[in-house]
Amino acid sequence: MKLVVGITGASGSIYALRLIEVLRQAGHEVHAVVTDSGWQVLDYECGVSREALAKRVAVLYDNDNVGAAIASGSFRADAMVVLPCSMKTAASIAHSMSDNLLTRAADVMLKEGRKLILVPRETPMHAIHLENLLKLAQLGVRIMPAAPGFYHRPQTIEDLVDMLVGKICDQLGIDTDLFARWEG
């Protein structure tokens, strides 16, 4: 599969890095775009630079380059995951405000009828946040809050991260064994 991963300035960059790692290990082609605030959070939370992320993906795009390949419907991406997704980015996508590459790529996924998954990591949410997420869900966007479960009895932060990444992979149709599934 050819997948786009968008990283915004919401806390939770660790999820994006792990998703990219899992997708690459499974042989998928990963394209990435990061907002300015996304870079700040990646550095602060994970110590990851542009150069380091560029080594982890097939292509790393400049968010200011709205003429990049992923900005076009002719770029045949199978799906896009925005992880973590800030409320600003969710609002921009919900209102088709394609003022940067990440939001334009998400808009293209919507207009082409391709899978788009947003992973908001915000709490609490107010009514406008919820309205924007509802609008997106009504358009077919998968909304997956960064809220891992605990039934698999996680022992580490990595266990929590893997559960959420595993659930995202489920939505992409990618089999993983990242967490123990509930069996009753």
From TrEMBL:
Span of the signal peptide: none
Pfam family, one: Flavoprotein
Isomerase as UniProt keyword: no
Species whose genome carries this gene: Selenomonas ruminantium
Family (UniProt): Belongs to the UbiX/PAD1 family.
Record: residues binding FMN: 9-11, 35, 86-89, 121
Stored NCBIfam families: PRK06029.1, ubiX_pad
Catalysis: reaction(s): dimethylallyl phosphate + FMNH2 = prenylated FMNH2 + phosphate
Any one GO molecular-function label of the UniProt entry: flavin prenyltransferase activity
Database matches in InterPro entries: Flavin_trans-like (IPR036551), Flavoprotein (IPR003382), UbiX-like (IPR004507)
UniProt protein name: Flavin prenyltransferase UbiX
This protein's record includes keyword Ligase: no
Gene behind this protein: ubiX
Enzyme Commission code: 2.5.1.129
Binding site for dimethylallyl phosphate: 151, 167
Every Flavoprotein domain range: 1-172
Keywords of this entry: Flavoprotein, FMN, Prenyltransferase, Transferase
